[in-house]
Write a structure and sequence with these properties.
A: Alpha-Beta Plaits; four-stranded antiparallel sheet; 25% strand; B: two-stranded antiparallel ribbon; 69% helix; 6% strand
Chain lengths: 324, 460
């Protein structure tokens, strides 16, 4: 049986009186892409730093490739921290090769790998450019390539998409898929749910230091109450009209013409069934839209609108970082 | 070891690739070279000037000439050679000829009174001399009553010639007075020569004295100079690493690179690599400066016979285990101790401005050993020095300085042990402070809280 690259058991991390991560248990099976989701301040970065042994947990157990994190097991890991940083006076090529060498590659192999990666990501002409002269996006790409250079078995990427333009976000998505196809296990944190929807086999959601969900995407969507939106002419009581047919309808925000209603779908019923029932009930329908569930809705349903709002506000709560 | 090497290599190349490094490297030799060239140029560019003496005979002209001969640089150089115990004749060589060049030459008076001399002194007419035709720079005219020797010149700001003349006439008057009293003109010199000598003797064991004698030689003095140089060198090295360690750590902290590094190298590997890199950078600088000084000395040795004999005792002292061993221990431990303190403090700073607030207390901390070195150099047996050697921040410097004075072995052993314990304690605390700064973003304001925490944990 394949060994899980990372297993966290009941991990708690406190900074003074603030508990950043509480009783987190998590297993990252080999070969999967796992999204670690949650707003800023949810405890994602702290969990990742604990996972890598950068900071020790106050309680619980961390197993990286079956052992406590140490320099040899860390050689199999590529880590992109949330707080990006490179040596500004080194060139792009030197930077990638340096970090690859720290992970055990020989000098010649590291340089060759740096060239290969830069060529394949369009950075070839900047190989001898100092990091300080690169744009922010290019510097971030250099850091991502430094993370991948030694062909790690396990990639941990903390908010890898932040700071990248849409084109480079797509480049990064492609890189993640390529690394996954190569056989790497990938755990990445993000507060942008769309990336997780496109990439992940499994997602783990965090809020206020606690894990609130751990499962596949279908399992995540299954937690949502399904529904549809109907707009009817003003004054028509859709709730009363649909109740005898087994549908529950609530008045929603007014969106223009007439009244807007949200219909909760009972188990086994689809949006078309709700529409049919409304027509049969003689509702003067002016608009209809089946719900398109997104991960954000899953998150809202799990943690509430207040915590979910932080997903959209990058300045909401800064990630913790206190004295150990 | 590989990771230490990689961190060391990156940091070292990072430092030596910077312009500042090359500027610092070139600054000392360049300043020395420019200083020497300027001095040589100043000496050589000074023009040779003519003067004349109008008197009935040649009495004052000869006296002034004799005074020049007495005071010329060669005589001073010989005095210097005597002081340095150089072999006889060491300064009688071509290198000193430049210094000996006479800058004032007496010529025959072109006229016998000031009115006649006026056009020559004002440069309207030239006088002939050994170096061709030149304006007359100055003229001495003895008054009719023989009581004053007037000095006439267009440039009264250059007084060398006048001062020489004053000395000459004073010496002449003394000579006449001694002769009038029926004494030999060299009476005073003979009296001085007859004074009881006070030679320095070094007490040794009987057998040592039989082989080495009792005279104090350069070999007796060299260990003190070597120890002083080593102590000062260590201080200079520690002083010069502050900037590197502070700035280097601040750069990494502000670049937010620690998380990446610490998932690739162990903390001790990172710190060791960084300390070694800064050590290598300062060593490179000092090595280059040392080589420059050595080349200069070697050149001087070719010009000054016997200079090699002078260097040998210093080399022997530097190679003596009695000095070398404590010096090495003090060097390594002192460097680690101070280096770790600066690196830990640097890890708490986000900006250079923050670091600058730390520089003042650090400078004071570093000036204390300098004062201690100064006192120890003046009086190594002072109780103050004895006491200060037991203070860990002074020990590395003072232990080296005390070694030529044969301190008790138990003291040396205890002080080395104290240095080891202190260095380990500093390492222990510094690593924790560094980790808090580098990994957890702690700042200077958190230092007190951290140290309290460290002490509490230790007590628990």
């Amino acid at each position: 049986m394949a060994q899980s690259p990372l297993i966290l058991t009941d991990v708690t991390k406190r900074f003074g009186n603030f508990t950043a991560v509480r009783d987190l248990s998590l297993e990252v099976p080999e070969g999967q892409i796992i999204g670690f989701l949650g707003p800023n301040g949810a405890g994602k970065s702290t969990s990742l730093r604990v996972s890598l042994g950068v900071i020790p947990p106050d309680e619980g157990d961390v197993r990286l490739f079956g052992d406590v994190p140490h320099i040899l097991s860390l050689r199999r890991v590529g880590f992109l921290p949330e707080e990006r940083g490179l040596y500004k006076k080194m060139t792009a090529r030197e930077t990638i090769a340096y970090f690859a060498r720290l992970k055990g590659m020989s000098a010649s192999a590291a340089k060759a790998r740096a060239d290969e990666l830069m060529e394949s990501t369009g950075l070839g002409e900047f190989r001898n450019t100092r990091v300080s002269k690169l744009s922010k996006g290019m510097a971030q790409k250099v850091q991502i390539l430094s993370t991948l250079a030694h062909r790690p078995d396990f990639l941990i990427l903390d908010e890898p998409f932040s700071g990248l333009d849409p084109v480079n976000q797509q480049v990064l998505e492609d890189l993640i898929r390529a690394e996954h196809a190569r056989g790497a296990t990938i755990l990445f944190s993000t507060h942008v749910m769309e990336h997780a929807e496109r990439l992940c086999d499994r997602i783990v959601m965090m809020a206020r230091g606690r894990k609130v969900f751990d499962g596949t995407l279908p399992e995540a969507f299954a937690t949502l109450e399904k529904g549809a939106s109907l707009e009817v002419e003003e004054g028509f009581d859709l709730g009363a009209a649909l109740a005898p047919k087994g549908f529950e309808a609530h008045r929603a925000a007014d969106r223009g013409h007439g009244d807007a209603w949200r219909i909760a779908l009972p188990k086994g019923a689809g949006p078309q069934d709700a529409l049919r029932a409304a027509i049969e009930a003689g509702a003067p329908i002016t608009g209809f839209a089946p719900d398109e569930s997104r991960l954000r809705d899953v998150f809202v349903s799990l943690v509430g609108e207040a915590d979910a709002a932080a997903l959209d506000d990058p300045l909401a709560e800064l990630e913790e970082g206190e004295l150990a | 070891m590989r990771n230490i090497y990689l961190v060391f290599r990156r940091d070292y190349l990072g430092y030596v690739k910077a312009w500042g490094f090359w500027l610092s490297l070139a600054a000392v030799p360049a300043l020395m070279l420019i200083g020497s060239l300027f001095a040589m140029f100043a000496a050589q560019s000074s023009p040779v000037r003519y003067y004349t003496v109008i008197e009935p005979g040649q009495l004052y002209a000869e006296a002034i000439d004799a005074e020049f001969a007495r005071n010329e640089a060669a005589a001073m150089a010989q005095d210097l050679a005597d002081q340095m115990q150089l072999p006889d004749g060491a300064m009688n060589n071509g290198a000193m000829q430049t210094l000996r060049e006479r800058k004032f030459i007496e010529v025959s008076p072109p006229a016998q009174d000031i009115d006649g001399l006026r056009p020559y002194l004002l440069g309207e007419q030239l006088v002939s001399g050994p170096l061709g035709d030149k304006p007359l720079f100055a003229a001495f005219i003895l008054s009719n009553d023989g009581q004053t020797l007037e000095y006439w010149s267009d440039d009264v700001n250059i007084n060398t010639l006048r001062y020489e003349a004053e000395d000459a006439v004073r010496r002449l008057a003394r000579k006449h007075a001694l002769e009038a009293a029926g004494l030999d003109p060299d009476f005073i010199q003979q009296a001085d020569d007859g004074a009881v000598q006070v030679p320095a003797r070094r007490i040794r064991s009987v057998t040592e004295q039989e082989s080495a004698g009792s005279e104090v030689t350069l070999a007796d003095r060299a260990p003190v100079f070597v120890a002083g140089a080593l102590a000062y060198f260590l201080w200079l090295m520690v002083f010069s690493i502050i900037q590197y360690l502070l700035m280097g750590t601040i750069e990494e902290r502000s670049n937010k690179i620690f998380d990446t590094l610490l998932t690739s190298v162990r903390m001790p590997e990172l710190l060791a690599g960084k300390l070694l890199a800064v050590f290598a950078v300062t060593s490179t600088m000092m090595l280059v400066w040392g080589l420059f000084a050595l080349s200069g000395s070697a050149f001087l040795a070719t010009q000054v016979p016997g200079a090699g004999d002078m260097i040998t005792p210093f080399l022997a002292a530097a190679a003596s285990p009695q000095i070398l061993l404590p010096a090495l221990v003090s060097f390594v431990l002192g460097y680690i101790m101070y280096g770790m303190i600066f690196m830990a403090l640097g890890s708490l700073c986000d900006t250079i401005q923050e670091a600058q607030t730390l520089l003042s207390p650090m400078m004071i901390l570093l000036m204390l050993p300098m004062f201690a070195i100064f006192i120890a150099f003046q009086d190594p047996g002072s109780p103050v020095v004895d006491f200060a050697t037991w203070i860990p921040v002074f020990t590395p410097f003072l232990l080296i300085l005390r070694m030529p004075h044969d301190p008790p072995m138990w003291e040396v052993a205890m002080q080395m042990g104290l240095m080891v314990v202190t260095t380990l304690a500093v390492l222990w605390v510094s690593v924790r402070v560094y980790r808090a700064g580098a990994v957890n973003g702690a700042s200077i304001g958190d230092l007190g809280k951290m140290l309290k925490g460290v002490v509490r944990k230790k007590a628990a």
